């Protein structure tokens, strides 16, 4: 397991590619959108430069890490890879289309992993001819900082695939947690209803954006308030996850807040679009 591809060079994909390259893997970072790919590569360079400035990495180590990263706009490069990690938008149709192509392009031994936040791994696996080699590898944002990787077993994921991903997770200096395939897994089943409730709290006029976040930061010692965290994750991603929980459990307690829908419709996607619950430069 030496060469990997990350598909989607957004905030998650670029972080995942960086962490693998820093751990000695050869990495293709792929995006269908060249501007997004350049932004992802620039972001990695910026974070590595900061690590050098802070004395956590030498100039040589930074150069070696960058040398291990190859930008790519075509999925064909996946034919050289032992593991592919998909980190495109949280939408089942887009993900299954990527997995169908990967199943044709990659050699039989290649493990196909998804960084999905909430979508069923079993359903993604079902569009391939290798469901035993399909698995969820769910990193947390920001990837270079957060220690957790949720590893999700689809119904047909083999023990060999699980063990290979567990070993890789340790080699990235991260902590794996094994989770079964249920909507939102563990992380977002618990986190996202809290964020949705914070948005309802704003929608119902209980308190201002800043005050809701202050309550959770100072009152519960959360590093970010839930509205700031929603902006950081991306409001589109939050809405997709709430929709998966709502549909997957069929329970009205997961109903996405209308204010969340409104913001996403307006293109207020949080930090990445410059406006969400807060304004960004
Ligand atoms: N990318 C990479 N590194 C980052 C970063 C980013 N976006 N943001 C901050 N960092 C690094 C900084 O470089 C800094 O490291 P150094 O001091 O060594 O340079 C370190 O993190 C701390 O940063 P700051 O001092 O600027 O700020 P902070 O103390 O407030 O920490 C934070 C920033 C780590 C993001 C912290 O606010 C935090 O933990 N927030 C909550 C994050 C969280 O809950 N993530 C999970 C989201 S849910 C998810 O990921 C699952 C999903 O499916 C949606
Ligand atoms: P993002 O919008 O920042 O990036 C997605 C990238 O995928 C974009 O650059 C887009 O151009 C690219 N893309 C879309 N379709 C593609 C395709 N067919 N082929 C190649 N590239 C394609 O999104 P993100 O926040 O990085 O989220 C990516 C995935 O990670 C989602 O499944 C999300 O649920 C999951 N996730 C997100 C977070 C978070 O906090 N944002 C945390 C954990 C997991």
From TrEMBL:
GO terms for biological process: fatty acid metabolic process. NAD(+) binds at residues 8-13, 31, 90, 95, 117, 141, 272. It is an enzyme of class 1 (oxidoreductase). Pathway: Lipid metabolism; butanoate metabolism. It comes from the Bacteria. Pfam families: 3HCDH, 3HCDH_N. GO terms for molecular function: 3-hydroxybutyryl-CoA dehydrogenase activity; NAD+ binding. Residues 184-280 form the 3-hydroxyacyl-CoA dehydrogenase C-terminal domain. InterPro entries: 3-OHacyl-CoA_DH (IPR022694), 3-OHacyl-CoA_DH_CS (IPR006180), 3-OHacyl-CoA_DH_NAD-bd (IPR006176), 3HC_DH_C (IPR006108), 6-PGluconate_DH-like_C_sf (IPR008927), 6PGD_dom2 (IPR013328), NAD(P)-bd_dom_sf (IPR036291). This is 3-hydroxybutyryl-CoA dehydrogenase. It comes from Ornithinibacillus hominis.
